[in-house]
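Quick log. Single chain, no ligands specified.
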Amino acid sequence: METQAKTPGGARELNAIKSAFILDKKIGILIVEPTMSIAGTVRRVLLENGYSNIFIAHSVLDAFNTIGNNAVGWMITAPLKDERLTAWHCLRLPLEVSLYSQIMVSVLTNDEEETSFEDYYALGALSIHTRQLTYNSFQDEIGELFSRLQKNELVADAIAVDVRKRFEANKSWDKLERFEERLTTLLSHNPAQKLHLIEARFKNSSKLEAMIEIKQLVTDHPETLADAKALSQKYLGTADIQTFRGQVAILTALILDPDASQQQFLRTTLTEMGVEIIVCCTTLEAACESLHAGPVFDVVFTEWKLANKVEGHAFIQHVRQHGHEAQPVIIHSSLVKPEDMPLIDDLKGVFIITKPSPKKQFKQALTEVLERWAFPQEGTDIENKIVNALSAGNRSQALSLNKGFQLHKKIEGQRKEYIRGMIAFSEGNYQEAKSIILQSAKLGVPSYREISLLGKILLRLGDHASALKFLDQANTMVPGNIERLCNLADVSAEVGKPERALQIATEARKIGGDIGMVQSVFAKHAVANGMVEEVADLLETESTARDMIGYMNNLGIAHAAAQKWAESEVAYRNAMAAMNGRHPHLVALVSYNFGLSMARQNRLPDALALLRDAEIHGEAPIKRKAADLRDRVEKSIAQKVPLVLKEVHREISAIQTPEAMSKLEQFEERAKPDFHGLFRILNSDGRTPGLDLTSELPKSVLRKDENTIV
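-> predicted structure:
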């Protein structure tokens, strides 16, 4: 159902506010400014621009009273930051009160004010002007606003012109690209806006997305061909938008090779190719440390056979797990065997350049590899790029690439369905992903890719027995993938095979022992098998400790629910012993549930000690529950009567706690219009004051609107 708002001219859609509404000289304008000289200057400029229906208020409360008695469509407000009601309440009014949703708000700002223009526009502001104004300066600013409104049919598009100008002046290319993405997705789908998005991508060096979208735009809208070619010529140096791949500049590189002569060859050659920062490492440990401490490298080189019989795939998986999901990895080696290729293919974005090779030949091979990765044309390259983009959380790039991938005539249907399943899985649509993969099995014999993905899907859906079967099969077909081993360890434990879970986790640890995912999996399965001393160092990290505590806590609850009291006690005690005083706020969860378990068994003195620990160290919810139960246990002991537990005395499962919403996000949930200016389109920097929802707008304002959320 479309959101509507009443205006003097009748009903209209909020997401289609027309510029003509502000340009109409009959519109009611309210100036909210305590200083009469400033208010008078603003009024004079507006009068000379043909507006006559102008009101002045010296406070927000006066403004609300004026609005209640007069038809106002445009408010121009000072900050009023020393008052109880401020400019932010003026901005909130049309968003929270449907009766006043037609009002657009311009803001006068002081030069020393720290609030960014993004904060104001995120709350639906029409325009931003300096409060240190003169007649001429304000006339210029208002003239510029009117010019933007006259050139754009929609208010939002007119505001977007100012946002672009400000981002470009600050060279905030990343913010500009994100802004154009949201504007294209949520409000403007016309070709002109898509050209703005493509240009923003070029400015932010997102050349792949730009090339994909520019080709699609010309296909959908042939009339944009000239503009598209002009953009391509401007940013890529060629008007050939169909076959151009583009030059790829690499500035940073990481090299892992035990051979000093090969390190020197790569360093010299890469320097000649313009690489500015080159880090050379001889050992896996040193290279992993560089991944942790250094920047995100543009490209990573590795020998396949490393010291101590370590193979290159171990390092490559470290690369992928340490923030380099989207970067190409080059195996510079002559030691890769045919049987190594399935795992290399499984890791995605990995290329092989055989050594030794002449410098000229190496440069040609490297240039081709980098172009293939940056501007993929072939099916396999596009598929790998999509998978890595999903791993890196770059969903927009993955979806853009998938459009061309699904239309590619030389790619078989089963591979297309696999990518559709991957995207559905990444979005949390597990049932849809399962249906896609099962349907793809009808198109041909499933490969390890489909089998492994189906195992991950079934693990998320709770079908552990089936998940184990498919993950085991995929691991047999292509062994050595760390992520798959971690999933296999978890599902083995779920089907009652804790020893095998530990065995698999240990295997994963041999490949990637310093990877967070591996550390968490090994820690929880080691503790579940009583190996508490082996994980002491790992549990210094809170994220690993939290995962282990959550797993062991839920394991203890499951045993207790089946009245396997001994097994439950072992799980709880192992968890507490492994922590050995670390992170007491995490241990409090186990202490509470262990204490409750003891209380159910009428072991009240033991329960009392555990509950006291939970009350002392626990966070607020656990502290309250522990205090209540501790009080009942103490009374039961003192009165020598059996303990009677209430329904509220339940175990607390370890669940993933969602991140708390910011005040702005809470406000967005509460506000009524879908769009108002750039509300919900531009992201605030998070410094927006005045959004404490306990301080309500005046009741006299709210009562006038029967649909207002109070």
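The first helix runs from residue 19 to 23.
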